[in-house]
């Protein structure tokens, strides 16, 4: 293989060769970043969330009657709901919450030690902490473990306390990461905070994985007791026909009080997938764009090789007449594609970094690495070789005598 001769041949078609190299460089950059997005999306989906999702259903209930504006009536219906659901054969456990783990939006509070100086601002990491108003069995239903202290008991119910006074100080549970950041080197149990007295520290689980502090959370045993607030029931059900189970749950709630809108009953597995839908959808979109770009590049490689062969029939015929074997001719045609691919592989580093930096301005992008880059280069190399294979194979069919007749 004469590299110098190949370069001369490529220079005769500078524009076509340059365009092909540009396409290959762009394809490598797009493919590498698509691969990074796919790996990141799959890693997010496979990451342990720290709580049980199997056979756990969740659904929101919205009152449609003015009667629910009365807090006592609201709470009495919630008690009836809980009892009705707990009595169903398909239900193993039930609780309520104002928001789910792995959920965007919701309630956020700041937290600080009660002795924190009033003239000092709250540290940024302790501002905007997801705050959950949950039932007594919230942690038990999710099968999350207490790291320190205890779980909620009946005496921790702060619903009535808040109804009587907005300044009520409840007992609270906070997540382990938050506790260790708020009280480094000491136990948080028993500490008095701006949100209440800490009675328990729950082991970390996925609360807001896309935030800077994904495991920070404040939990209060409380029902909002307001028709305007979000009320979500979480139900641990027995394995079986989910469609039937969902209908049984709907019927039980409608029997308690029909004037309510029961939103879609979803599994926590589906909720988990929905939370990362943006990441998976983006990865899918870029994968489709990469596949399209790869197809266009393969067509360009085919056209480039086909045009190259058609213009060099005389030269190929002379080589065949001088004793060049079929595999020598095949190697000659493929070598030009390999040289173009090698040049594109060298320039592709710039494309990968540039596309990664552009995407990082609008989304959270993982950084490129050598392995992902090499994988994409190999894919592009194999695709180009496959596209060039047919013209190269046809070249070996040129008979020496046929080619020399045109001289």
UniProtKB/TrEMBL annotation:
Principal place of residence: membrane
Domain named MacB-like periplasmic core: residues: 24-241
Subcellular location field: Cell membrane
Topological relation to the membrane, as annotated: Multi-pass membrane protein
Matching Pfam families: FtsX (PF02687), MacB_PCD (PF12704)
Domain ABC3 transporter permease C-terminal: from-to ranges: 289-400
Highest taxon above the source species: Bacteria
Segments passing through the bilayer: 285-309, 329-358, 370-390
InterPro entries, per the entry: ABC3_permease_C, MacB_PCD, Macrolide_Exporter_MacB
Chain coiled-coil ranges: none
Keywords noted in UniProt: Cell membrane, Membrane, Transmembrane, Transmembrane helix
Keyword Transit peptide appears in the UniProt entry: no
PANTHER family: ABC TRANSPORTER PERMEASE YTRF, MEMBRANE COMPONENT OF TRANSPORTER-RELATED
UniProt family annotation: Belongs to the ABC-4 integral membrane protein family.
Protein name: ABC transporter permease
Lineage: Bacteria, Pseudomonadati, Pseudomonadota, Gammaproteobacteria, Alteromonadales
